[in-house]
Amino acid sequence: MGCHADIPYPAWKWSSFEPVKGDSIKIIGWKSAFGRVIIYRMAQTNFGEETYERQVSEYEAELAVYRDAAERNLAMRHGISVEEYRRRAKVRMQRFVEVSERIQNDKELLENMRNIRPLDVGCLQHREMDFWQYAETGTFPDQAALEHLRACKRCADALNQGRERYLGILPTAVCLSDEECALVEQTGKLPPNRFRHVKRCYRCLARFEHRRQRHFENPAGPDCLTEDDRHVIHSSGEVPEHRRAHLASCERCKKEAKRQRNVYIDNLIPVPPHPRRRLKSLRKREEVS
Q: Residues 51, 57, 58, 60: what is their CA dihedral angle, to the nearest 10 degrees?
């Protein structure tokens, strides 16, 4: 914690005081005729102790405003009341704490998590469609993806494992038909009575996910949202009545309508930036004591 000043590296330090982590300090500088700091010295100050209560109260007030706006914004996005959103958030936090405690108590799992090497930026596992497309077809239309696969053993092992698993499952009478796959590519969704099988059958899961991603990449159809429709949602938060039936059968338009509605909600209930935590060292010292 301390004051900050723009002190160039060549500037001469004119003091013997050496601050340690947690000290409140001030920097006094002397500038040349050209406005560049040429000499500076550091001195200890009680700024933190004198302004601690005011700084903390301001931070807590800003945090309360931020939380209230964020909760109202997210509640409106989910179409529920603020009280219901807070109740659900509390339940999620309780579950998160329970899972965290189980992970902390599992030493083997912790060790495995520490040994996981982070993915490179260009790794294909960052792009879900590539994984499912390779599992079903064994190749990519993108030459850059193929070149990366030849150079990255980690991606090659993961994708080849998915491909082998796909080929190891023979299609049965209850597997997805070509007509159902075409329906997924057209609408982005399956009939409700097929989800249970898709979740249990890796072969059908790969075919479903591959075509679902293609649905989002395909050009819009004649019944899809137009620029005027997007503007209506963006400005009012409501989907035009003549487009509501289409959204039930088109995941691409449903996703776009949700994005435009979120923009409307952000304009209606703007969420301020998360307040910066002040006087970290003093707050930490108080928590420890």
A: 140
- At residue 284, the pLDDT reads 54
Strand order across the 37-44 sheet: 12-13, 37-44, 25-31
31 within a domain of the structure (yes/no): yes
Amino acid (1-letter code) at residue 266: D
Q: Could you give the number of structural domains in the chain?
A: 2
Altogether, the residues listed in the chain come to a count of 289
**According to DSSP H, which parts of 79-167 are helical?**
82-105, 107-114, 128-137, 143-151, 153-167
How far apart are alpha carbons 184 and 197 in whole angstroms?
15
Tokens encoding 126:
């960052």
Given the DSSP bridges, would you call strands 25-31 and 12-13 parallel, antiparallel or unpaired? unpaired
User: What is the model's pTM?
Assistant: 0.68
Range of the domain at 29: 12-45
**Segment of 99-103, 115-119, 130-134, 266-270 carrying the highest mean pLDDT:** 266-270
28 compared with 72, residue with greater pLDDT: 72
Domain assignment of residue 17, yes or no: yes
**Per-residue pLDDT tens digits for 88-101:** 999 999 999 998 88
Does residue 268 fall inside a structural domain? no
